[in-house]
């Protein structure tokens, strides 16, 4: 009886990745296309990165994996689905409630994916003599989306995020850089076609043109990365978004093929789906830390978060919330106090 041929190293790695819980896996050379490099350069040259100075400071390493690690030969790109099991935009119809981005309604995905990547990396190093690896999950100058596209996990949609035929716009990404010389994944079809739903869904018109994002206008950037007062021109457009924004992701037609994510640690905590704005506004530092322990929201701190909540209160049109905002006009944090005063002034 003849023996079955041993699966290729790529097949072995992919099978183990799925065994660990990853929903997508692919391989590519450790290099970016000229088009991807030009897109990154334009993003910085136009100032679309806003205050995210690290985008500019380490652009060379982001544009060239070998500038970050000269020995890297291949990239293993991994995707973990966080597709919701209900309409993520339903909360937008409840003005006295806050809308939290789907990925942030439970545990911090950085911690989850990094643990999974480390387990997979241990498997990868056993696939040859002297194999070396480095793991990344949004914590280093790594062009995650272009590499995921090159590894055939999907394609960068007009909203600049990755779109997958199987998981829609709901994939969290991680990478393993390795000295292994891996065969690139076979091309897979898929495109946005003539669809522009993501572009028209954006409340703040953050897309200068398809496939380009001005982060300075993006609600996710404004509520998470932006320190200090949020520009007044964007406040009425933010609605009740208090951490991140899924508007452009949620309307993608490819989402109809996505099954709800399987990772229990990413399943929404009930108290973080449509949380009450009045309760969130009353959080002090200790109660904020307790509520968001283990959550990515904890990273931005109480003051920035309550600033976001107060803007949502100002947009709510709910008279009962006026007094909640008024109580914070003398908050010790100047940014919180200013946002509270703005919220009060939105009521006649």
UniProtKB/TrEMBL annotation:
One of its GO terms (molecular function) is cobalamin binding. Signal peptide: none annotated. PROSITE patterns: 4FE4S_FER_1, 4FE4S_FER_2. Keywords: 4Fe-4S, Cobalamin, Cobalt, Cytoplasm, Iron, Iron-sulfur, Metal-binding, Oxidoreductase, Queuosine biosynthesis, tRNA processing. One of its GO terms (cellular component) is cytoplasm. The keyword Iron applies. Its main location: cytoplasm. The keyword Translocase does not apply. It is an enzyme of class 1 (oxidoreductase). Pfam families: Fer4_16 (PF13484), QueG_DUF1730 (PF08331). [4Fe-4S] cluster 2 binds at residues 202, 218, 245, 248. [4Fe-4S] cluster 1 binds at residues 192, 195, 198, 252. The active site is at 138 (proton donor). Its cofactor is cob(II)alamin; [4Fe-4S] cluster. Pathway: tRNA modification; tRNA-queuosine biosynthesis. Binds 2 [4Fe-4S] clusters per monomer. HAMAP family: QueG. Monomer. Catalyzes the conversion of epoxyqueuosine (oQ) to queuosine (Q), which is a hypermodified base found in the wobble positions of tRNA(Asp), tRNA(Asn), tRNA(His) and tRNA(Tyr). This is Epoxyqueuosine reductase.
């Amino acid at each position: 009886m003849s023996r079955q041929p041993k699966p290729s190293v790529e097949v072995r790695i992919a099978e183990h990745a799925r065994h660990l819980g990853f929903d997508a896996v692919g391989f590519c050379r450790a290099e970016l296309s000229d088009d991807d490099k030009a897109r990154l350069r334009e993003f910085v040259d136009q100032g679309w990165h806003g205050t995210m100075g690290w985008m500019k400071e380490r652009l060379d390493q982001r544009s060239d994996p070998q500038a970050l690690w000269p020995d890297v030969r291949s990239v293993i790109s991994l995707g973990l689905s966080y597709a919701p099991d209900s309409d993520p935009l339903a909360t937008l119809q409840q003005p006295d409630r806050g809308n939290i981005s789907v990925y942030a309604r439970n545990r911090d995905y950085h911690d989850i994916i990094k643990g999974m990547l480390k387990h997979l990396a241990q498997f990868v190093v056993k696939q040859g003599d002297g194999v070396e690896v480095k793991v990344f999950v949004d914590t280093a100058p790594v062009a995650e989306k272009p590499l995921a596209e090159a590894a055939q996990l999907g394609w960068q949609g007009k909203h600049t995020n990755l779109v997958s035929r199987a998981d829609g716009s709901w994939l969290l990404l991680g990478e393993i850089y390795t000295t292994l010389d891996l065969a690139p994944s076979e091309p897979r079809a898929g495109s946005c076609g003539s669809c522009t739903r993501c572009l028209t869904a954006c409340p703040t018109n953050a897309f200068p043109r398809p496939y380009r994002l001005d982060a300075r206008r993006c609600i996710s950037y404004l509520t998470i990365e932006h320190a200090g007062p949020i520009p007044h021109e964007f406040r009425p457009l933010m609605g009740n978004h208090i951490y991140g924004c899924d508007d452009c992701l949620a309307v993608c037609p490819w989402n109809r093929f996505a099954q709800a994510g399987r990772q229990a640690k990413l399943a929404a905590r009930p108290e973080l789906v449509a949380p009450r704005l009045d309760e969130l506004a009353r959080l002090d530092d200790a109660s904020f830390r307790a509520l968001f322990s283990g959550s990515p929201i904890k990273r931005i701190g109480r003051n920035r978060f309550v600033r976001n909540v107060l803007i949502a209160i100002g947009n709510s049109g709910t008279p009962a919330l006026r007094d909640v905002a008024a109580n914070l006009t003398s908050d010790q944090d100047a940014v919180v106090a200013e946002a509270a005063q703005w919220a009060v002034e939105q009521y006649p």
